Amino acid sequence: MDVVSDAISAVRVGRPSSDRVRVGGRWCARFDPYDGAGFHVVLRGGCWLLPDGGEPVVLGAGDAVLLPHGTGHVIADSPADAAAVARAVSFERWALHPRPPRPAPGAREVEMLCGKYRLDRTRAHPLLAELPPLVHLPARAGAHPELRAAIGLLEGELDERRPGASLALPSLLDLLFVYMIRSWTAESTAGAWPAALGDRVAAAALRALHADPAAAALRALPAARAAPWPVARPAAAAGVSRPTLARRFTALVGRPPMAYLAWWRLTRAAALLRDTGDPLAAVARRVGYGSPYALSHAFRREFGMTPGQYRAGITTGG
Known about the structure:
Layout: H1 3-11, E1 17-24, E2 28-31, E3 36-44, E4 47-51, E5 57-59, E6 64-67, E7 73-76, H2 82-86, E8 89-90, H3 91-95, E9 109-118, H4 126-129, E10 135-137, H5 145-157, H6 165-187, H7 192-198, H8 200-211, H9 213-219, H10 229-238, H11 242-253, H12 257-275, H13 280-286, H14 292-303, H15 307-316
Helix pairs in contact: 5-6, 6-7, 8-10, 9-12, 10-11
């Protein structure tokens, strides 16, 4: 696994949902804040997006927007004033009408894909936490070719009557999420994580640590009689000395390599407790702890509860 894949896998819960919306004339719809990530893809036409507490954004055909922290917002045919925003119709009312009436002849029409990703934010990776409230990826010629291709495939699968659509659509929505985050990391000029992923040394070390965190941890145990793997192996992969890697990694990622690895192993353990019924011994082995007791001790120190209490809380919704 790589950093972006792991960051998404650690927080993603269930399957994404989406609705195809086709409207025209004067309209204004409200999306309440959501404990997940929202997205819009404009298939045809154009509209305005007005995020709570943010500046309006003009959206055109082919544009994609990600609201990674579930920010409440309004979409409208024009830059609506405060009174119009207050009267905005709840999006759920649109969702009740999968085939809305055709707009009046000559009216400006927009067709969009609007949806949500369910996320568990209790242990979000700092890469996702660093995303801005709104990521706007306009459809510029030659920009984001993978994202453009995914949008084209999505448009072709929106008819749920097509054979295999129920499997293809959620998979393409997951792909859209990956491409939107990848596009942001490639274009962003601010933030630690785009810089870390764009740095040859830090990126190589992160790949090495994420490739097999359990092996990385076990090789670092004194009984293994090996060099401290979390520093030595990534340093070799990046082609630098261990002190150089430690300084560069810490400056870009915000914590030393071994501290990052320790945090990531417990984050993976929490995800496995949430998403699987594996016994604690199996979870401990998968994240590189020598025994369930060792994992429980580290888990309690990090989460303030035992793995069993954590899993029980998820099961009961606590």
